[in-house]
Amino acid sequence: MVTPSALVDRLAQVRAQIETAARHAHRDPNAVTLVAVSKFHPASSVQEALAAGQRVFGENRVQEAAAKFPALRAQYPDIRLHLIGGLQTNKAKDAVQLADMIESLDRPALADALAKAADSVGRMPDLLIEVNTGDEPQKFGVPKEQADAFIRTCRQRFGTSLKGLMCIPPATQDPTPHFQLLRSMAQTHGLPVLSMGMSADYPQAIAQGATLVRVGTAIFGARPATP
Length: 227
Ligand SMILES: *Cc1c(COP(=O)(O)O)cnc(C)c1O
Prior knowledge:
- Pyridoxal 5'-phosphate (PLP)-binding protein, which is involved in PLP homeostasis.
- By secondary structure, the chain is an alpha/beta fold.
- It has a single domain, classed as Alanine racemase (TIM Barrel), CATH 3.20.20.
- The protein is 45% helix and 17% strand.
- Strands 1, 2, 3, 4, 5, 6, 7, 8 and 9 form a nine-stranded parallel sheet that branches.
- Strand 2 (56-59), helix 3 and strand 3 (80-83) form a beta-alpha-beta unit.
- Helix 4 packs across helix 5 (108-121).
- The structure holds pyridoxal-5'-phosphate (PLP).
């Protein structure tokens, strides 16, 4: 956790760096949305960011998001909450109720669960397919070689609710080739949204066309060990 004023300063720095990276890439800075990743940080930190004008937040656990965000949303109805973590099928209904975007659709069983949940809840959040661009066994995301087929079937099933793709490159590699791969997959399928880039690499992601960057530590400071 950082002190409130430090948080506001860091948020302003990240916004400034997004603008710089976009201008370097000859892109409109407004085409890049900052998702402030508030996982493990208390609602009071989210409040500070809200007071500084931030509205889009990312959480990776449904339970934590459900504990923090409904009260904040009552206060700030224009909040947009993105679920960015691996999602269990038994959390699909809660996820569909809570989220404005689910960034981690990565397998047919989850697609089934989300479709069923959307039917029963009567709303469907925007969806991104997470691609495991590094084919890392411990990571979430559809394996690279299955991605094209999965994107096609999700497109047919979810129509315009499917907005784009998300990736988390391997921590030990240059992220740029992974960002390029994700961009080319999105282009192939005509998907407009590219969620890529975190605290360590969001300028590189913007250079490769990111439209969403998911930044936690650079805004909120180091995460506490437990939420
Ligand atoms: C935690 C997390 C982030 C933010 O990571 P930082 O390095 O703290 O910016 C981004 N994306 C996902 C999927 C995450 O789980």
